[in-house]
Amino acid sequence: MTLPDDRLGTDDDRVMRRGFALMGRGMREQKLLVSISVVGSILFGFMTVADAWVLGWATDHAIRPSFENGDVAEGAIWGAGLLFLGVALLRALGVIARRLIGGIVYYRLVASYRRLVTRQYLALPMSWHHRHPTGQLLSNANADVEAAWAVFMPLPMAIGVVAMLVAAVVAMVAADLVLTLVGLIVFPALFAINVFYQRWLSPRVTHAHALRGDLSSVAHESFDGALVVKSLGRESDETDRFEAVAHELRDANIAVGRIRGIFDPLLEALPNLAVLLVVVLGVGRVASGAAAPGDVVQVAFLFTVVAFPVRAIGWVLGELPRSVVGWDRVEAVLDADGSMDYGTAVVPGLGAVRLRIDDLRYRFTDADDDVLNGLDLDVAPGTVTAVVGSTGAGKSTLTSLLVRLVDPRSGRIRLDDVDLHDLSHRALADTVAVVPQATFLFDDSVRENVTLSAADVTDEQVWAALRTVQADGFVAALPQGLDTQLGERGTTLSGGQRQRLALARALVRRPRLLVLDDATSAVDPEVEQRILKALAAQTSGGAGPTVVVVAYRKATIALADEVVLLADGRITARGTHAELTATSAAYRDIVDAYDQARQEADA
Amino acid sequence: MSERTMSAAATDRATGWAIIRRGLSMAPAIKDGLGFTLLLAALSTIGSSVVPIVVQRTIDHGLGEGKRTELSDIAPELGLAVVLIALTAVVAYWMRVRLFVASETGLADLRVAAFRHVHDLSTLTQNAQRRGVLVSRVTSDVDQISQFLQFVGIMMVISLGQIVVATIVMAFYSWQLTLVVWFCFLPLVASLKFFASRLSAAYDTVRRTVGEMLAVIAEPVVGASVVRAHAIEERTQRRVDGGIDANLHANTRAQSLVAVTFASAGVAGGLSNAGVIAAGVVIGVAGGLSMGTVIAFAFLVSLIVGPVQNATQVLTEAQNAIASWRRVIELVDTPADVVDPGESGVALPDGDLDAALSHVSFAYPDGPIVLADVDVQIPARQRVAVVGETGSGKTTFAKLLTRLMDPAEGTVLLGGVDISTVSFAELRRHVLMVPQEGFLFDATLRDNLAYGRRDADDPDLLRAIDDLALTDWFAGLPRGLDTRVGQRGESLSAGERQLVALVRSALADPGFLVLDEATSAVDPQTELRATQALERLLDGRTSVTIAHRLTTAENADRVLVFDAGRLVQDGTHAELAAVEGVYARLHASWVAQASLGLDQH
């Protein structure tokens, strides 16, 4: 078991510095509510001390006189009762302010930073998204934001406790100086033990937490691959793999438990021993007349009521390292800059657009070479062009460039003579639609998944788009038709059905250039044919968009007016399928692979 | 809160004990010595009651009456108190360590048992949506139980113990004052259940809003390119903000309930102190009580305030933990629908295997019939293609052949043996299902290949790669067998994942292969490699392939055509293509799709 103990030691200053800066930031942002909760917490602290004072006062002014005189000191009894009740009510008020308002501070900070982080996700360019794994971004917006502000849960209480300790010492000094000494020994000791406790515990808790993550990964992977596991009969091996992590987690949890087992009883016993010490010293003080019995009772009671809240300081310190780690991750997202700058132009006119690409160059972030290397292409309006190329030729990159999911290093893309860069974001989205191979559906109704809340799309238009993509049948068969909820808690669709909805989503916006990036890969071949034919018919009939389709299947190629071969980052050949087959060996190599496979199989 | 839900909560609690009992018997390591641990827990509550008693004794020994009190008067009691407090601390430590070790050990066993059981449930391979839920059964649900046993449960025991001990000490001093104290706490204790059910409902809302929020937060991340391409940033932000706000409100509401119940316990404490002093003085002056006793009561009341303060949350968390425990128990109690005959299983004959299905039907429980009365013989070394539209029953047919499911009626024989009588270990050695998408584990290529055969060494792996004519592809991998494939193999292309799956299958060396052909398009070079590799893998083996391609059906020895859960056609490609029917129609669409390829011949 490796623990980041040593590292923690050297990072201590940084954790403290960053931790206090983080607390300062949160307090500034929720100034009013933090103030209310801290005032509430201080009220709680003072009233806790006051509770002990009331008991001391009651001892000396109500209880002892009554017992000594054998006569109920009515006025004093009423006074003591009202004091107890008043203190309790004020303390309750403090508790509510501390717990409720303090909790709201935490939840508001979390909500506000979730909003900031997700706004960044929406503003940052796709190139940034591509550099960060999905899982990491999700946890930045969820677990990390929560971890960052978690320190605010115990913080108001801890601040109140500091006030409470000051008040407790003042009350002790007022009661008796010698008894105060006990407090001056015990309070720092409690504080030190708490700090030491959290120091020791915190890395082990973090370790156990990380193991819980590992365990979940193993279970996820094993269940995802269940078919492979089962068909190869590897259930026992998988169980062994899971068991190894489960046992590691068990040991880590037990290690945490042992530390808790030592400190929790110790922190409970210490104030009790302090009370005994107060009694021992108190007997002498009362005997010598230096203190009244009420003073002794008050100081003893103080230890009983103060001991538990003191732990809050330990909680804050224990939470700090995790908060700092969370904040580091959140801050990395918030500090990321870069966004797409859009123009204000629109593409004039209506109907299919001409696409012209000049000398387009693109390079992946870490690559040494351009993936697109001076690509030129001219697509006439109202035509279907198939892009063919081997894996890694840059076909998908080209489609991303057409909607500016990424921007090229150099070169121009124009739609009817308007540079893509000059278009407003709205105009770009209205003019060009790309349908990728991987489909994303929203946790929403079928209708919303197609319209994406566009107000001007009628149900008739939705159905028309669904008909074109051969999805009207299965949508009509869904329990609530267009209103059927999709996603995690809704109906599940097959890959082919999802792709068809994504196609309908693109079509319903009546784009003037439609780019399909292997967008029908999961659709039954027969259905795919019907979809593509319907699309091609619309386009050639003048009612549809200009279509650029990245094609693997020959049937798709067959429907294109023109085929272009993408190789070495450029268009190296173009023409009809027949022309290219006749003139380009590279084209034949790629397109004929199916046939070669078949011939070999036949041989 | 309606009466119906209240009574529902009552039945839940009644069965709560049953769940705990059943849960404990499932994880015997927890139960081991639990009685002694509980005894230690009870003993550990004594320490806190020592202080009020000492306070009472000291005051009544003179502190109160202004007389000279010698330390020696109370020295024995003080000494005893110190010893008791120290002992209590030791007992508390001992109790906690026992509890942690026992519960963690037992729960780790429960986790592993549940995990193993999940792999025996066919829902795992049939319902991808349920997988996330199953993962939470062996992770967060067990964590919740662990939390319950170690903190909430033991806190309940200690709290209850503390209240009982405090009440006993109080009653020993004065039954009248005890009644006063309890009278002050009564309204709160009586309303605990009410608050707990409100809080539990509030937390349910919190959990629901968390789920909804996570889903909308995923939109700008997982759906980033869709959002960008359709310029729907504003809509997305609106949805995300809506999810975040709903969660914020739900949390605020739950928090306010916690704060109110927590605060009211303090008020009840103040009320008791006031009552105790008033009543105590009145009774005391009349001669019934000492002054020390009255003051000791204030200390005793503080022992009750803490447990009552936390009671609402403790009850709520206990409910959640029991719900988790119930879910885990239900999972483990779900009978494996496909049962491994294990040791008592029969062996399959060595060598080539033939298959025979007689009158086989399949339907999901309470579902429509998926496959009806299938009767078919597949001779050894025959290459069979299964075709049909989505939902025709062809995948079910394949799963029955590999015993991923059992038929509702009829029998499946391999090599003349009913496969339901063959042990899994034996069956998996002879029969292999190769799924559509090559699923890889996040490990090296070596580990993923060796998944097919446990004892395979590097030369074995390289030989298998060579056997499938994939050496040139393998040579192109910069790190060879040490190549890390990434999560689900995502560092490799879809086509390459299929290649790895084929080598893995070759290493497993089954006599009977069932393949689900990949539908997603991969680049032509890899496609060609996969086709060649598959060709070599199938050579000399009995195979059944769920075919999505024309060539697969054309090259098969025999084609089985399924339609609406029935085997409707059976013959060679040539025979079936020549007659009107389902196959001719499917074939025509394939031909249309590949027409460009055909016109070259």
Write a structural description:
- The complex is a heterodimer of chains A (603) and B (601).
- Helices cover 66% and strands 9% of the residues of chain A.
- Chain A has 22 helices and 10 strands.
- Chain A has helices at residues 5-29, 31-69, 74-123, 126-131, 134-149, 155-175, 177-224, 226-231, 235-287, 293-306, 311-335, 395-402, 425-431, 446-451, 459-468, 472-477, 495-507, 525-540, 554-558, 577-583, 585-591, 593-602, and strands spanning 355-362, 372-379, 384-388, 410-415, 418-419, 432-435, 513-517, 546-550, 562-567, 570-575.
- In chain A, the strands form 2 sheets. In chain A, strands 6-7-8-3-9-10 form a 6-stranded mixed beta sheet, sandwiched between helices. A 4-stranded antiparallel beta sheet of chain A has the order 2-1-4-5, with helices on one face.
- Chain B is of the alpha/beta class and 601 residues long.
- Chain B folds into 2 domains: 16-333, ABC transporter type 1, transmembrane domain (ABC transporter transmembrane region fold); 355-594, 3-Layer(aba) Sandwich (Rossmann fold).
- Chain B contains 23 helices and 10 strands.
- Chain B has a 6-stranded mixed beta sheet, with helices on both faces.
- In chain B, helix 4 (46-63) packs parallel to helix 8 (140-173), helix 5 runs antiparallel to helix 7 (131-138) and helix 18 packs parallel to helix 19.
